[in-house]
Amino acid sequence: MKIQTRLTEMLGLDYPIIGAPMFLVSYEALVIAVSEAGGLGMFPLPNYKNPDDLKIALNIIRKATSHPIGVNIHLSGRFDWKKQLAICLDAGVNFFITSLGDPRLIIDDVHANNGKVFPDVVSLEQSLKSRDGGADGLIAVGAGAGGHGGTIPIPVLVPYLIEKTRLPVVAAGGISNGAQMAAALALGACGVITGTRLIATPEAGVVQGYKEAVVASEPKDIVFSNRITGNWANWIKQSIEKVETTPELDSKKWLDIWSAGQSVAQVEDIKPAGTIIKEMVESYIQTCTSLQKTLLDR
Ligand SMILES: Cc1cc2nc3c(=O)[nH]c(=O)nc-3n(C[C@H](O)[C@H](O)[C@H](O)COP(=O)(O)O)c2cc1C
């Protein structure tokens, strides 16, 4: 069974599930596993330090899967993204999530290559600016999301942004199983991003201790802080206790600084990313079926 939404139609996916592009976590293996399972595998560009590394990664991915993939661009001044964008467009990547900067910087180039741009947003102000700048959709980053989380809970943020912008909206934050995905789609989202859940997989490019910390953590262990990057983000408390200053983008210190969202609550084991996507789909179908049973004729 496939699940059809505006996102799956737009991108040719079996399921409206995006494997989050995670800094220092999402590399080729995770992208391939998610895309092969029928979702959209993604990586963030800063995971590849130079154009050659990026080309090698794209080649590896393309040899392993013909399914669609996406790329996240950090548009901050700290990262030189222009050459990298051109390489992705040449390689046929046609879905981009922008973060940490103005999405208008890439929209014309991506549209000229028949691609779509969905900026990460946490507020109505950012969403309207993105829409007016030509964005094709939005990634609504809600409270408790791994990485740079927002402050508004998904059940409020998703319908709010849909109503005010009329754009397709993907829900990000706290979605790691099929019931949570059904809730997001019930709110009107055209898809979901799952990040935290995919850290606890053999394919995630992180040390074993990080994966185990995601399994062991409870929501109370996740802290929302702007102390590490200057932007508000969710972190596993124990991993940032001794961090005093922001490490450089290519510093090894990042390997011990662990971001995760409150959905660590639902992460109980390390298992393959493809299994996680398959189980999300199965439990989505079960949720829809059991909701149907709550409806009485009279
Ligand atoms: C370790 C980590 C790193 C992340 N890095 C990025 C990133 O580089 N770019 C980005 O757009 N989002 C990033 N995110 C956010 C995810 O794309 C996604 O929105 C989020 O993980 C969804 O919430 P969840 O973690 O509750 O599933 C990151 C998330 C995590 C957990």
Written as H for each helix and E for each strand, in order along the chain, the element string is: HEHEHEHEHEHEHEHEHHEEHH
Rg over CA atoms: 18 Å
Total strands? 10
Considering DSSP H and I runs of 4 or more, what fraction of the residues is helical? 25-40%
Strand content: 15-25%
- Structural class, by secondary structure, is alpha/beta
CATH architecture of the domain at 6-196: Alpha-Beta Barrel
Shape: globular
Strand order of the largest sheet: 1-2-3-4-5-6-7-8
| Largest sheet report | 8 strands, parallel, barrel
Number of helices: 12
CATH topology of the domain at 6-196: TIM Barrel
What's the name of the CATH homologous superfamily of the domain at 6-196?
Aldolase class I
**Tell me, what is the CATH class of the domain at 6-196?**
Alpha Beta
Mean pLDDT: 95
Distinct bound molecules = flavin mononucleotide
**Sequence stretches where pLDDT stays below 50 over 5 or more residues:** none
Cα separation of the termini: 31 Å
Structure report:
This protein has 298 residues and is α/β, with parallel strands linked by helices. It has a domain at 6-196: Aldolase class I (TIM Barrel). It has twelve helices and ten strands. The protein has an eight-stranded parallel barrel, surrounded by five helices. Strand 7 (169-172), helix 8 (178-186) and strand 8 (191-194) form a beta-alpha-beta unit. The longest helix has 20 residues, at 273-292. The radius of gyration is 18 Å and the shape is globular. The two termini are 31 Å apart. The model has no long low-confidence stretch (mean pLDDT 95). The chain binds flavin mononucleotide. Residues 20-23, 25, 44, 72, 97, 99, 120, 141, 145-147, 172-176, 193-196, 259-261, 263 line the site of flavin mononucleotide (FMN).
